[in-house]
Amino acid sequence: MDFINPHVVDLSRFQFAMTALYHFMFVPLTLGLTFLVAAIETVYVITGRRIYRDMAKFWGHLFAINFALGVATGLTMEFEFGTNWSMYSHFFGDMFGTPLAIEGLMAFFMESTFIGLMVFGWDRLSRPAHLAVTFLVAVGSNLSALWILIANAGMNVPTGTHFDPDTMRMQFDSFVELVFSEDAQAKFVHTSVAGYVCAAMLIMGISAFYLLRGRHRELALRSFRIATLFGLVSSVAVITLGDVLGRMDYAKQPTKIAAIEGLWHTSKPPYAPWAAFALPDDAKQENHLEIGVPFVLTPLITHSFDQPVTGMHELEDQAAPRIRSGIIAINALKRYGDSHSSTDLATFRAHEDDMGFGFLAMRHSPNQDTSAITEADLERVVKQTQPDILPNVFATFWAFRIMVALGGFFFIFFAFSTFFSLRNQLESNRWLLRIAVWAIPLPVMATEFGWVTAEAGRQPWTVFDRLPTFLSSSSHTVGYMTFSLIGFILLYSALIIAEFYLMFRYARRGPQDHTSHETPSTDPMLSGLHNAQGGRF
Amino acid sequence: MFAQFPSLLKLAGLGAALVIALLFAVFVGDQGPWYFAWVVGTVMIVLISATGAVLFEAQNNQDHDQNKETQP
């Protein structure tokens, strides 16, 4: 069997990583902005104050700009599965394609339809009807993310599927198992709520900009108040849900967790230190300049004080029998393809779970053919394949730490912002407003690093434990990949310039003036609330 | 009796919505606890942030009243 050119695999990976990270700049904002706009509009419906309508319209327009770019960049990624990852699509398309199709047909159509009503329906719909439309847009955009994350969870922890040796592809067994898999659930809630944090920070940052410039004060103070509470609760949730996701990965993807923690040797509970800083050396398989915090790793990963966390060296040792078993599986599969003999099928079935490790061993086999491995060669092939089961430790380790550090910063910042906003002391604490402006891109960066942690940590697999990445790409030429990569860079650079231009222009211009709204509420509900409190809060 | 029909219809509709919500909660809470947590959590986040705005208006009204009292 001829291998796909490794440069083509690297270029395909780079192209997909670039387009995915680019697309993911818009997704979290879309997920969060819809619900934040819905929260603002809820206040409008409850209080009847026109300023909240203007706020919902203003932030809704920013959402619409962001949404358009998100759609444009997302579509190309779906095509990439067919053009650049055709082996993967053949192997896993039966399962992967289903949630993607549902995303397009159900969630995306729902979202797009209601966005039209949301943007143009202000004077055509009643207040409650328009609020319902806004909530439907929010639910629709989050359902879009749900189906993508279900598909991604299927790659990370294949669920509700089995390999069919006759078709040479993973066949779909249970839609319910896939949708309700623990990994899909945890991935969705963590990602969605991370989007809430991104949206909260964007609104706080732009509102802070207005307050620093002394413009649109009424809109900015109210927007900041709503966004900071939205962000505070979301940041607590995103940390909690991240812990859930980590616990699940510990059970299902131990190599990812060991790489995240830079853990080369199995930990000794309860003392085992958590590496706050280290420079993991993938080649030498050790850490340099490690600074650890004792007694943290074990409870952090296992939620106990007595369970060890398996290190990467031990995971390599555990992989050796699976590699031997996988080689038997691949050889039996090849023979079954020629003969369709029940004996070969039975042999394959007995070793099927380790098939992916056999694929990994192909790279180190004579002529890349596992059937050519002799008894004398076997241990050499196994030994050379063992390190291949690990992801890039340096990238996974640091992507995770940057994400976690930013997550901690968001919680602290939202807590301070909420405190000063509730005391109406925002404008006297200009340092806080300045931080809010500069912090606008940080949550998006945190989600990008989170994505890198998840996907770099999944390596060397596209379908975990089943299909290696180096066997997944299409058999293009380097020239073709280079040409398409340059095309993507040019197109996406133009799109990002358009996005930033529109967002900056719209945000700098701001909404219409709200000085006319600076009178106190005449709304009966608020007046009643105010009177019931004796005018005091 | 017929005059009350729209109200009864509305009541039946709300009752049906309540039953569906309960069934949804039982099923999703059992099969997908984190999905259920997302639904409940998102509603909570929206309501807490909306409450913050209502509190802002009340504080604003209070300040306005105090300013009026201090004016000659």
From TrEMBL, chain A:
<protein>
    <submittedName>
        <fullName>Cytochrome bd ubiquinol oxidase subunit I</fullName>
    </submittedName>
</protein>
<feature type="transmembrane region" description="Helical">
    <location>
        <begin position="398"/>
        <end position="419"/>
    </location>
</feature>
<feature type="transmembrane region" description="Helical">
    <location>
        <begin position="97"/>
        <end position="122"/>
    </location>
</feature>
<keyword id="KW-0408">Iron</keyword>
<keyword id="KW-0349">Heme</keyword>
<feature type="transmembrane region" description="Helical">
    <location>
        <begin position="20"/>
        <end position="46"/>
    </location>
</feature>
<comment type="similarity">
    <text>Belongs to the cytochrome ubiquinol oxidase subunit 1 family.</text>
</comment>
<keyword id="KW-1133">Transmembrane helix</keyword>
<keyword id="KW-0812">Transmembrane</keyword>
<keyword id="KW-0249">Electron transport</keyword>
<keyword id="KW-1003">Cell membrane</keyword>
<keyword id="KW-0813">Transport</keyword>
<dbReference type="Pfam" id="PF01654">
    <property type="entry name" value="Cyt_bd_oxida_I"/>
</dbReference>
<dbReference type="InterPro" id="IPR002585">
    <property type="entry name" value="Cyt-d_ubiquinol_oxidase_su_1"/>
</dbReference>
<feature type="transmembrane region" description="Helical">
    <location>
        <begin position="478"/>
        <end position="502"/>
    </location>
</feature>
<feature type="transmembrane region" description="Helical">
    <location>
        <begin position="129"/>
        <end position="150"/>
    </location>
</feature>
<feature type="transmembrane region" description="Helical">
    <location>
        <begin position="58"/>
        <end position="77"/>
    </location>
</feature>
<keyword id="KW-0472">Membrane</keyword>
<feature type="region of interest" description="Disordered">
    <location>
        <begin position="513"/>
        <end position="537"/>
    </location>
</feature>
<feature type="transmembrane region" description="Helical">
    <location>
        <begin position="193"/>
        <end position="212"/>
    </location>
</feature>
<feature type="transmembrane region" description="Helical">
    <location>
        <begin position="224"/>
        <end position="242"/>
    </location>
</feature>
<keyword id="KW-0479">Metal-binding</keyword>
TrEMBL record, chain B:
<keyword id="KW-0812">Transmembrane</keyword>
<keyword id="KW-0472">Membrane</keyword>
<protein>
    <submittedName>
        <fullName>Uncharacterized protein</fullName>
    </submittedName>
</protein>
<feature type="transmembrane region" description="Helical">
    <location>
        <begin position="35"/>
        <end position="56"/>
    </location>
</feature>
<feature type="transmembrane region" description="Helical">
    <location>
        <begin position="7"/>
        <end position="29"/>
    </location>
</feature>
<keyword id="KW-1133">Transmembrane helix</keyword>
